[in-house]
UniProtKB/TrEMBL annotation, chain A:
GO terms for molecular function: GTP binding; GTPase activity. Residues 218-295 are annotated as: Disordered. It comes from Haloferax marinum. Residues 48-198 form the AAA+ ATPase domain. SUPFAM superfamilies: P-loop containing nucleoside triphosphate hydrolases (SSF52540). SMART domains: AAA. This is Methylmalonyl Co-A mutase-associated GTPase MeaB. InterPro entries: AAA+_ATPase, GTPase/Isobutyryl-CoA_mutase, GTPase_ArgK, P-loop_NTPase. Belongs to the SIMIBI class G3E GTPase family. ArgK/MeaB subfamily. Residues 239-263 have a biased composition (Gly residues). NCBIfam families: lao.
Automatic annotation (TrEMBL), chain B:
Its cofactor is adenosylcob(III)alamin. It comes from Haloferax marinum. Pfam families: B12-binding. NCBIfam families: acid_CoA_mut_C. This is Methylmalonyl-CoA mutase. InterPro entries: Acid_CoA_mut_C, Cobalamin-bd, Cobalamin-bd_sf. Residues 9-138 form the B12-binding domain. Belongs to the methylamine corrinoid protein family. CDD domains: MM_CoA_mut_B12_BD. GO terms for molecular function: cobalamin binding; isomerase activity; metal ion binding.
Amino acid sequence: MGRAVESDLVERLLDGEHRALARVITKIESQSPGYRDIVSEIHAHTGHASVVGITGSPGAGKSTLVDKLAKHYRDQGETVGVIAVDPSSPYTGGAVLGDRIRMASNVGDMDVFFRSMSARGQLGGLSTATADAVKALDAFGKDRIIIETVGAGQNEVDVVKTADTVVVLVQPGSGDDVQMLKAGILEIGDVFVVNKADMEGASRTVAELQEMIHLRDDDPTKGLNMGHHGAGAMSETPGHGGQDGHGGHGGQDGHGGHGGHSGHSGHDSHGHGGSPHDEDTDAPDEGEAKPTWTPQVVETIATTGEGIETLAETLGDHYTYLSESGELEVKARQRAGEEIRQLLRSDVNRLLERELDRRGGIEQFARAVVDKETDPYAVTEDVLEPLRECLEDGDD
Amino acid sequence: MSADSEQRTIRCLIAKVGLDGHDRGAHVISRAFRDAGFEVIYSGLHRAPDEIIQATVQEDVDVLGISILSGAHNTLVPKVMAGLEEYGALDDTLVIVGGIIPEEDRPGLLDEGVDAIFGPGTPMQETIDFVKENAPERK
């Protein structure tokens, strides 16, 4: 297989051939020989689509929401690409990819390109594969790209971080969701969606989210203190589990340390919609007021489509904010940097694996370490030496 | 362990076409395929041929498994096959049909381009082996 095959495939993709797009994603996913050439070639054609990442716990309604959102964009005449990432079995590598089953609103509409991907045990490579697949959809000419993934761990967080806008889906009334927020998902959300808003406890969940967003926003040491707030909210929640009417209140009282803020934010949380510009006053020392973004909370009922329009508007607002503030470019640079790092890591890793094989495999080193003939650090030093010499020679 | 070692995983779409609510067989086969290390996309019930075509093309599956117990196979399967042809997906998709297909209908379906038909009672391993041996190369 020569480069001609790849170039031909890229050409057909750029021509809008569905099958070529599908095949390119397959190659990216399975890391077939030549897939890197393909990604290199399509790279120049990317940068037109806006990318939204949607994450949330299983059953929160991600797929249904994605379906309705895709429909909304289609109704506006835009084309949509969806990448749905599902976990695969760590034992057999097998997977049942079930997100497609919810795509009922876009039946037979080829302009919604829906693709299921599984994790395939690619250590850290999943985000690379997803980012590359997004590039393929982008180069194909999709206006909107949606990445959907279960928010289960670092791997998935890395995946949604390849998007411009990150949406975190939360189910009403379960402490488990707050657990998820505590695990770091809160920090990455630009928009929070409380889905199944007709369920009991939805308004309380909205209030809790707004409370957390405010604490994150008002606190000068935001990032550092997140864990603490998360923990506070957590320990409070079970106690108020069953209560509904006053539940929201209880959640806020949990942050005793921030009494002043709590009362305040609870009060105006609904008005504080976080339009792209409303935080200007918080940065008086900057000569030019830069737009900032306060994460939004949107209520939806995905099964009926309620709130989808508001969500789409909010996503639009966020994208406007990103481009006006220059944040879009900053993010793109960060992502590119991360992509380079990731590729370097995995390639160096492979080089070293081969080196290990050449030296007789890891097994004998492992045995020597267990037999106390050597230690892991010495082995590492030994294996790395040629590489280190090589790189440091360049410096001289 | 070579640098470009391909992570070859067989992708399958298990599809229920038409007005046929019997999906136990489709579930069982989905699960068996998953446990055999395949990636399985399940279509859900009552799909139109168009949806199956869309999914097969977009997901670039190696194998399309159509489960039909309603007796409408002579109408539905050709529609699916024609759609795959239209999108250039027929040649490199292994199409297998499961369910209740009378003996006299089988030659016709095979003529349409179906690669194999597995009736009731087929040992699971036989189907899995067939897929493993015949899954088309991705070029």
